[in-house]
């Protein structure tokens, strides 16, 4: 495929040559293989090899290739930089001990053993640089049929790393064609192990949850989180507002909302946002957006009459905060106001045409009076729909 051909940059050709010379096998692994088989260009590419980290270091160093950060080395990953490109290459491995969060690994040269410790069948394939597909668990079949299944027994895979529960949902939202197409035994395994998510760090959970919130079937998947007792362990309110969630997930179709906008529809009160933050360590911006939506979603709505956008524009004009504009855009998505959203995105925030300097020229000298006059003129300007220019406002001042 053209996507596959495009991978062969000068960097990759050089890497492939080095491995070939030493007779080490090198293949593309995991997500990149899934993307290529779906006809997509992979965002980042992981490679797997039979060479150990020590052998790779030896090989790269003697070829004068620069190695970057050695953080991944104990898990078997070496990162080499050739032709302005980074290549992340990991030795085949078996998980020896897992505690549901991290694994201790031991290296192997057995490709099937490495595939066996991966999470989902669609993520467990390898692709040779000659275009040969190595698929030990029917991942390609599942991908064509849009099925999401764990490699081997769901129970065992989940207990190796409980975050895989959310990864299952995320890939379901990416690949499955319709909601509700799960194997009952998989859902049973998820329910039995849901509590394991309590031990996973908030940051890791939030990365997965955000992707679920902007993927397909989000309504179905979040309802499933409540049915399978997952919600309570990942910071969601126990009595999440599922009717509001239904309404908002319909509103936001095709509007590309931020994950927080979708999630806030489950929240009834500000505390729900605070509790989510305590569990998931969301960013300040995300937290502020959640609080903003909970506070304004009911009363800040479009005006009846010829200027439906006015309340939102007034809010932006009165606000002293920097990113009010983008928060209002998210509010409009939440409310499903597609036309108003487009209008607002085309609207440029007008700047108030009068300054204190203009008033001094007119003989207003005390600071207090200038402040009051500016305030009054701002009100007049607002009433005019921000259309009055400097001249009109100043002549208005004479009347006042």
Question: Could you walk me through the main structural features you see in this protein, from its secondary elements to its overall organization?
Answer:
The longest helix has 17 residues, at 367-383. The N and C termini lie far apart (74 Å). Among the domains are: 1-145, Beta Polymerase, domain 2 (2-Layer Sandwich), CATH 3.30.460.10; 356-398, no CATH class. Helices cover 50% and strands 10% of the residues. The model has no long low-confidence stretch (mean pLDDT 93). Helix 14 packs antiparallel against helix 15, helix 15 packs across helix 17 and helix 20 (367-383) packs across helix 21 (390-399). The protein is elongated. Strand 4 (77-82) and strand 5 form a beta hairpin. The chain is built from 21 helices and 9 strands. The chain has a 7-stranded mixed β-sheet. Strands 6-7 form a two-stranded antiparallel ribbon. It is α+β, with helices and mostly antiparallel strands and 400 residues long.
SSE blueprint:
Layout (H helix, E strand, L loop, with lengths): L1 H4 L4 H12 L4 E4 L1 H7 L8 E4 L3 H10 L3 E3 L8 E6 L2 E7 L1 E6 L4 E5 L3 H6 L9 E3 L4 E2 L4 H6 L9 H7 L3 H12 L8 H10 L8 H12 L4 H10 L14 H10 L7 H6 L5 H11 L3 H13 L13 H9 L5 H11 L3 H9 L9 H6 L5 H17 L6 H10 L1
Helix pairs in contact: 7-9, 8-10, 14-15, 15-17, 20-21
Q: What is the succession of H and E elements?
A: HHEHEHEEEEEHEEHHHHHHHHHHHHHHHH
Radius of gyration: 28 Å
Distance linking N and C termini: 74 Å
Relative strand content: 5-15%
The largest sheet has its strands arranged as 3-4-5-2-1-8-9
SS summary, helix count: 21
CATH class designation of one domain: Alpha Beta
Q: Mean pLDDT, rounded to whole units?
A: 93
The CATH architecture term of one domain is 2-Layer Sandwich
Largest sheet: 7 strands, mixed
Shape, per Cα inertia axes: elongated
Write down how many β-strands occur, each being a DSSP E stretch of 2 or more residues. Answer: 9
Helical amount among residues, as a percent range? 40-55%
The poorly predicted ranges are none
Task: Identify the CATH homologous superfamily of one domain.
Answer: Beta Polymerase, domain 2
CATH topology of one domain: Beta Polymerase, domain 2
Q: Which class of secondary structure composition applies to the elements?
A: alpha+beta
């Amino acid at each position: 495929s053209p996507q596959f051909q495009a991978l062969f940059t000068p960097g990759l050709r050089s890497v492939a040559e080095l491995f070939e010379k030493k007779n080490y096998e090198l293949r593309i692994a995991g997500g990149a293989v899934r993307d290529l088989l779906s006809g997509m260009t992979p965002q980042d590419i992981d490679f797997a090899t039979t060479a150990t980290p020590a052998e790779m270091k030896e090989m790269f160093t003697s070829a004068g290739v620069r190695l970057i950060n050695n953080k991944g080395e104990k898990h078997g990953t070496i990162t080499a930089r050739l032709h302005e490109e980074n290549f992340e290459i990991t030795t085949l491995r078996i998980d020896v001990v897992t505690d549901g969060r991290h694994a201790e690994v031991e290296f192997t040269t057995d490709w099937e053993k490495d595939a066996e410790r991966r999470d989902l069948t669609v993520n467990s394939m390898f692709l040779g640089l000659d275009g040969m597909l190595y698929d030990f668990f029917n991942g390609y079949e599942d991908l064509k049929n849009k099925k999401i299944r764990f490699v081997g027994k769901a129970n065992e895979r989940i207990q190796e790393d409980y975050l895989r529960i959310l990864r299952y949902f995320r890939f379901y939202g990416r690949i499955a064609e319709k909601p509700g197409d799960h194997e009952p035994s998989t859902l049973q395994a998820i329910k039995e192990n849901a509590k394991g998510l309590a031990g996973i760090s908030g940051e890791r959970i939030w990365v997965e949850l955000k992707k679920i919130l902007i993927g397909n079937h989000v309504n179905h998947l979040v309802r499933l989180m409540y049915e399978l007792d997952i919600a309570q362990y990942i910071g969601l309110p126990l009595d999440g507002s599922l009717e509001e969630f239904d309404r908002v997930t319909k509103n936001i179709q095709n509007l590309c909302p931020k994950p927080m906008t979708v999630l806030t529809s489950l929240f009834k009160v500000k505390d729900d946002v605070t509790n989510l933050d305590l569990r998931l360590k969301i960013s300040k911006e995300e937290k502020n957006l959640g609080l903003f939506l909970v506070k304004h979603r009911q009363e800040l709505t479009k005006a009846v009459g010829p200027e439906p956008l006015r309340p939102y524009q007034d809010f932006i004009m009165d606000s002293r905060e920097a990113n009010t504009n983008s928060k209002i855009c998210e509010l409009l998505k939440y409310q499903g106001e597609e036309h108003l959203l487009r209008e607002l995105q085309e609207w440029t925030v007008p700047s108030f045409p009068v300054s204190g300097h203009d008033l001094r020229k007119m003989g207003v000298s005390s600071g207090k009076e200038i402040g009051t006059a500016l305030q009054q003129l701002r009100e007049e300007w607002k009433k005019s729909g921000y259309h009055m220019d400097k001249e009109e406002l100043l002549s208005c001042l004479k009347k006042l």
